[in-house]
């Protein structure tokens, strides 16, 4: 009757397929799952989506994006209660959906020709023969361990990529004696295969879609996803992100893994129209949702040799189901532009600096802030009162934190999450604190839960907090706002911080379990492991007198229901 053994039993029961054999035969086809509720085992996962209350939108239709936000808010604010439990179950169900992107519905979005939010398909860019030869050569290079395992800039995991062109030039440059080694020859052979269709067909296609003759091929590289790619290392995807240094990106499928729109490259959508000036309407399909919640993913259906083209402001990522290997060819396009005064290449991407709607477009603001922070790391420290010393002209007056604040003010969940991390460092000024609090109060008025996540100042008034106390409070507030949009990084960061603050308090453990749970549902491995630790804390600190009392704990029930569909 050891509580820790009970913990293991609960999660093993929900994860073990043999447990379904205990169910009545007539119910097994519905793929239900058992969980302990109100003193007995209950059946979950068999209720159809039509049984659930739809979420109203401005257009009178249910929106996936609004539904995610509503369910997430219910799960957090009604944690430990029936309504919160139902929201957890519904979110888990939605995270299991793998739906294809609809290119036909998206076509109308390019009507104004402003070169933003473009998604286009280029069928059969590579012939079957070219694709077959390319795939075979890539497979041979994978077997020889030639793919780079350097950390990826998005998630710091092994990149498993192979550069063919970098900075507009073939890689590698031949040795001085003119002798290529085996690796160099293999790269040259690959480029000879893909160069003609990329430069002669894809580049003109992209220029035509953007209405520009100023584009150039900047990078061409191969990427691989799957289990045990090299030396036991694996990569099943890459988290949702925006491209900072590519004006346009094209992804070319080298296999049929993505053909049914269930694996591979995806974008995040919200299915409703918006009055926002920077929203691109596609009938009922909009690709401007800044939430990276797993249920909003729409996978691009691509057959071997097909290409998809998207601009820098389209949120995208990659996800491949376990046991599947995927190979793709990626092309980055940039603009040919230099500083008019120095004749040198610009430090920052011109399409960001010269964006027409920079003052109102929260995506452009976030991506520019990311570019500034990457180019000038000191800018992430908001206590720096000087402008960028390395910059020139107007660039020297830009600070990444200012654009992060503007982006968060526009509702961008990525900006909110990043600001939470910046505040956590404590390297902030009082002026920044005032600006940040103004943004937060505009986004979300004070509510009861904020007293819980800000319980570090012993009842002090906001204007009496020290910089350190304000840093803690602001970081949690920003993470909380990001968490409400479905961002698993914000959910995990806030839960981690709460557990560090007060793991001995059950109300804190319950909120942390909820946050870890809704992040774990989206495939966030760190959140899943942390959720297990929260339950272990509950078993150790809860002082339960019986097995049933432990199973009735809101923390344990939250963990159970979060993991139903895992």
UniProtKB/TrEMBL annotation:
InterPro entries: TPR-like_helical_dom_sf. Residues 1-21 form the signal peptide. Keywords: Signal. This is Fe2OG dioxygenase domain-containing protein.
């Amino acid at each position: 009757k050891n509580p820790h053994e009970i913990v293991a039993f609960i999660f093993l029961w929900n994860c073990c397929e043999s447990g379904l054999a205990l169910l009545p035969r007539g119910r097994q086809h519905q793929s239900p799952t058992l969980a302990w509720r109100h003193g007995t085992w209950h059946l979950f996962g068999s209720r159809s989506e039509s049984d659930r209350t739809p979420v109203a939108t401005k257009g009178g239709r249910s929106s996936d994006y609004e539904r995610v936000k509503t369910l997430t808010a219910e799960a957090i604010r009604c944690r430990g209660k029936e309504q919160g439990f139902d929201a957890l179950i519904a979110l888990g169900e939605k995270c299991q959906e793998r739906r294809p992107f609809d290119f036909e519905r998206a076509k109308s979005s390019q009507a104004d020709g402003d070169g933003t939010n473009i998604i286009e398909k280029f069928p059969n860019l590579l012939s079957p023969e070219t694709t077959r030869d390319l795939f075979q050569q890539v497979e041979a290079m994978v077997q020889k361990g030639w793919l780079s395992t350097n950390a990826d800039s998005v998630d710091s995991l092994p990149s498993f990529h192979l550069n063919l062109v970098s900075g507009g030039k073939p890689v590698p440059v031949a040795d001085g004696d003119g002798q290529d080694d085996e690796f160099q020859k293999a790269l040259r052979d690959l480029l000879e295969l893909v160069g003609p269709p990329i430069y002669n067909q894809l580049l003109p296609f992209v220029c035509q879609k953007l209405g520009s003759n100023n584009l150039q091929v900047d990078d061409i590289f191969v990427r691989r996803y799957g289990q045990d790619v090299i030396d036991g290392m694996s990569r099943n995807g890459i988290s949702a992100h925006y491209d900072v240094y590519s004006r346009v990106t094209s992804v070319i499928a080298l296999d049929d893994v993505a053909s049914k729109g269930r694996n591979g490259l995806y974008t995040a959508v919200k299915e409703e129209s918006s009055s926002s000036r920077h929203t691109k309407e596609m009938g009922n399909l909009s690709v401007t949702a800044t939430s990276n919640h797993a249920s909003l993913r729409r996978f691009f259906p691509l057959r071997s040799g097909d290409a998809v083209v998207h601009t820098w402001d389209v949120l995208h990522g990659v996800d491949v189901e376990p046991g599947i290997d995927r190979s793709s060819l990626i092309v980055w396009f940039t603009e040919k532009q230099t500083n008019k005064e120095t004749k040198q290449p610009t430090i920052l991407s011109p399409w960001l600096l010269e964006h027409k709607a920079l003052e109102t477009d929260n995506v452009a603001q976030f991506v520019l802030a990311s570019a500034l922070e990457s180019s000038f790391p000191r800018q992430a420290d908001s206590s720096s009162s000087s402008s960028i010393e390395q910059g020139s002209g107007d660039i020297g007056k830009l600070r990444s934190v200012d654009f992060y604040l503007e982006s968060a003010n526009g509702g961008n969940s990525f900006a909110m999450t990043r600001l939470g991390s910046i505040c956590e460092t404590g390297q902030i000024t009082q002026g920044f604190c005032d600006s940040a609090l103004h943004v937060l109060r505009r986004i979300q008025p004070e509510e009861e839960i904020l007293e819980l996540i800000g319980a570090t100042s012993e009842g002090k008034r906001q204007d009496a907090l020290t910089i350190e106390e304000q840093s803690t409070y602001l970081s949690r507030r920003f993470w909380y706002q990001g968490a409400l949009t479905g961002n698993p990084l914000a959910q995990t960061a806030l839960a981690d911080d709460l557990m560090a603050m007060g793991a001995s308090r059950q109300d804190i453990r319950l909120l942390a379990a909820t946050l870890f749970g809704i992040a774990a549902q989206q495939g966030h491995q760190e959140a899943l492991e942390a959720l297990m630790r929260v339950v272990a804390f509950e078993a150790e600190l809860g002082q339960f007198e019986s097995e049933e009392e432990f199973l009735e704990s809101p923390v344990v029930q939250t963990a159970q229901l979060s993991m139903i569909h895992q």
